[in-house]
Amino acid sequence: MTVAVSPFIGLPLGSRIASFRRFTVPEYHRLIDLGILTEDDELELLDGHLVRKMSRNPDHDTGIDLFREVVGRLMPAGRMLRCQEPVSLSGSEPEPDFAVVRGGPRSFRPRHPSPTDIDFVVEVSNTTLDTDRADKSVLYGHAGIVEYWIVNVADRQIEVFTQPTGPTPQPGYAVRTDHLPGQTVPLTLDGQLLAKIPVDDLLP
Asked: Per-residue confidence at 19, pLDDT binned at 50, 70, 90?
C-alpha cells in the first residue's frame, strides 16, 4: 500500500492540494498497527495529512532539555509532562514537544490524551516557526486546548496563545501574549497560578 506524504511542510494546511488522500485518526492507527508506518517514518497526522516531522538541531534539543528540567519539576501530583508523544484530536494526531496532561504514567496505556486531558501544549520552535504559528495553532485552537506555548528560539521569546476559538470558521486562538527575556511567563493550571518562570530559563 502506497501512503502519500505531503511535501508542503511549512505551508498553511489550507493551501495543500485538495485531491490529496486524507486519513482519519483510526485509519492512521491502522497503518501503524499493520506496520505500514513505523517510528522510522518520522510522520505525524495533521488535519488528515501525513506530514514529515522536521529534523531537530542542537538549539531545538537544548530547548527541549531546558523545558523538561524547569517545568518538569513544577508538576503537581496528578499532572504529567509528556515529551514528543501523540495527542489525539479530531482528524489529527500531532506530537507536540510537550503536553501537560492530567494523569500518571499508566493513564494513557489504552489511548493517547485527548483535549479534555490536556492543560496545555508546547512547541519548541526554531526552523518550524511558521508551521507552529499557523498550522499548529489552528489545530490546537480548533480542538479547544486551553493554552498553547511556542518557545520561540529564533526570536528569543515565549509566545502564549489563549482563548481558543474552537471549531469556528476561523479556528485558532483569540489572544497571543509574547514574553521576552528579562520577563516571566505564568504557569497556570486549573486557573491557579503555579509559578512564574523566567523566560531566560527556557531559552537556549
From this structure: very low
The x, y and z cell numbers of residue 162, run together, are 489563549
Higher pLDDT, 38 or 130: 130
Q: Could you tell me if 200 and 70 are in contact, meaning their C-beta atoms sit under 8 angstroms apart?
A: no
**Torsion sign over Cα 87, 14, 166, 90:** negative
Residue 81 contacts residue 71 (beta carbons within 8 Å): yes
Which residues are paired to 124 by β-bridges? 151
Closest by Cα among 68, 65, 27, 64 to 48: 27
Domains along the chain with CATH numbers? 13-52 (no CATH), 58-201 (3.90.1570.10)
End-to-end CA distance of the chain: 42
